[in-house]
Write a structure and sequence with these properties.
The structure is a homodimer of 357-residue chains. With 357 residues, chain A is α/β, with parallel strands linked by helices. Chain A has two domains: 61 residues, Nicotinate-nucleotide-dimethylbenzimidazole phosphoribosyltransferase (CobT), small domain (5,6-Dimethylbenzimidazole Phosphoribosyltransferase, Chain: A, domain 1); 269 residues, Nicotinate-nucleotide-dimethylbenzimidazole phosphoribosyltransferase (CobT), large domain (Rossmann fold), CATH 3.40.50. Helix content of chain A is 47%, strand content 10%. In chain A, strands 3-2-1-4-5-6 form a six-stranded parallel beta sheet, sandwiched between helices. In chain A, helix 11 links the parallel strand 5 and strand 6. In chain A, helix 6 packs across helix 8, helix 6 runs parallel beside helix 11 and helix 9 packs antiparallel against helix 11. The longest helix of chain A is centred in the last third of the chain and has 19 residues. Chains A and B meet through helix 2, helix 3, helix 4 and helix 13 of A and helix 2, helix 3, helix 4 and helix 13 of B.
């Protein structure tokens, strides 16, 4: 907890903890699921938090830096995957349908033109003004002008604030060929670590590719003065979807929504956002430990222990989507289990003879 | 894999692996979820495995050994929780409802009389003939006669074979105050380990309680000759619900169903079953790493890496129920994601330029 919660949020957490102690189970026996319920109670300021309405928002963009060969796939795939998400063929499409939560794709900078088929049953796709502004190659120049940064941040905010049904739980994801490179640069700059510590294979680089990526990130870091603010780091060596994620998180904080955090890229963006605005930390529920090596360092910097460790390295919010089922389960257990009184069982908190094996 | 799968099962796994390579994602990027899909394909002998029909079966029984003070709660709680499960107030009630899968409670030996209310909307409760036969205090005598063992094993088999909708995925759980003690005894005997290695706090014993439990387990192990078969160990130092779980697993193997394995107690029962019948191993999908210390040893003996590590120590199949959402997600991703051809994206397996970040 980076900043003291408000009185209401603190009271809600305490009321939720009191309720947990009354539920028909040995105290603490649902461990992490209890913690999730308490975290959500605090975030939502409610003794009985909810997992719905929920929404999965994927921010998509391309990166001029891919020209150096830092990605395993061509940039055109970003556009292809936007369409695939829209029509229901992508992992995030299937997972969001599985959970029955809406999926939206926010194009904040996809370079390759794409055409959506008449029926895009899986996800609404929104193209934001930021997609029409040129980004820079972060190896040699700032990734974004201030104007572009603002447009991306606003796109993220509007994605959350414009939801048909305001979400109490938000899943933030990304799609962008090459976007582990800006994420590594942002993370290294924020944490004062050398490029080598924060680069990894992404979606499939070999050893030579990772070495090249480290070189590109080193060049990007060398352009920095070293005293940039977190958002200035995002602007100079980050990427458009990372900025949009920071903007979405800002709106989530404003509306009292919980954020289920995905993998390496989303965490890098949110580390910048938390450094800029520490109160945001208490809105984050960490979903998944990514297979990307640098994620462990980011998680440690945020004192986070994710719900899942499945080795996913797909992006698209897939780690957050995989974790959503557990968040919903935690909320349902918290709200729907009987108390000792309900069940007519002896005991309860402090009774010591009151629960089941 | 303890025994070679049949040709059909092997072919199904290979076909599923070929399909995974065609899905619109970087190869291997869904890691553990891909492995689950392949395991289920092999178990079910189908390129496109299913997660439904599913059923959660909880086997409940009491244990004369609790007279020595090895449990944190009185034996009457077992009966109370059977009723709580039936009416929908228990953790397993809420979790099974959350997933939309039927829950059944199989009473194979609950000692305290209980009365079910007219409406038991959450779970069907079945009392088996084994519940009418006296069990022994495993510290000083065999836990079961051969007749009782057979009755429990048959109860487990009939629970699976008698399901209204034959399950393709089975979640096995247990409820029984004191049942970590027989589980520790069975595990120690099967693995040739001293009692101290396999005892833990269960649902809340203090240090003195754990030391007492170790003494009880030591006495039980001293009664063994050391050359017992796995099932003979279950009969002499186990418990009724453990035997029923072994019987249920036998029926699952027969019907080609996958079993999502819960925590310490279920794993101890299934280790005996796998030792008796190695082909059973390939039917097991491990759901959760329990907070009970001995579980890690059992998992290692079965070369298992569970999907979840949430510190649960509740029983009732709660670990398997928590993992079910991921199993369903894995199956849906496998079956419903687009292939590269479907999505009109370049590449595919070996293409190397064909997936998304």
């Amino acid at each position: 907890m980076s900043s003291p919660p408000s009185g209401r949020n603190h009271e809600a957490r305490q009321a939720a903890a009191d309720r947990q102690a009354q539920l028909t189970k040995p105290p603490g026996s649902l461990r992490v699921l209890e913690e999730v319920a308490l975290d959500l109670a605090e975030i939502q300021g409610a003794e009985l938090p909810v997992a719905r309405p929920a929404a999965a928002l994927i921010f998509a963009a391309d990166h001029p830096v891919v020209r150096h060969g830092v990605a395993a796939y061509p940039a055109s795939i970003t556009a292809g995957m936007v369409v695939n998400l829209a029509v229901g063929g992508a992992a995030a499409s299937v997972a969001s349908k599985c959970h029955g939560i809406p999926l939206e794709v926010h194009d904040v900078g996809v370079s390759t033109p794409y055409e959506l088929p008449p029926s895009t049953s899986s996800a609404r796709v929104v193209r934001h003004p930021s997609a029409e502004i040129q980004a820079g190659d972060l190896r040699v120049e700032d990734a974004m002008s201030s104007e572009l940064f603002e447009a991306c941040y606003e796109a993220g905010r509007s994605a959350v604030l414009g939801l048909d049904r305001p979400a109490k739980v938000l899943l933030l994801g990304e799609m962008g060929i090459g976007n582990t490179t800006p994420s590594s640069a942002v993370a290294a700059a924020l944490l004062g670590l050398p490029a080598e510590r924060m680069v990894g294979p992404g979606t499939g680089l070999d050893e030579a590719g990772v070495a090249l990526k480290a070189e590109v990130v080193r060049d990007a870091l060398a352009r920095l003065d070293g005293d940039e603010s977190p958002f200035e780091i995002l602007r100079r060596v980050g990427g458009r979807e990372l900025v949009a994620i920071a903007g979405a998180a800002d709106a989530a904080r404003e509306t009292g929504a919980a954020i289920i955090v995905d993998g390496f890229i989303v965490t890098a963006a949110l580390l910048a956002a938390v450094r800029a605005q520490p109160a945001l930390r208490q809105h984050l529920v960490f979903g998944h430990r990514s297979g990307e090596p640098g994620h462990a360092i980011l998680l440690e910097a945020l004192s986070a222990r994710p719900l899942l460790d499945l080795g996913l390295r797909l992006g698209e919010g897939s780690g957050a989507l995989a974790a959503y089922g557990l968040v919903e389960l935690a909320v349902r257990l918290h709200g729907d289990m009987a108390t000792f009184d309900d069940a007519g069982l002896e005991g309860g908190p402090g009774g010591g003879e009151s629960a089941a094996e």
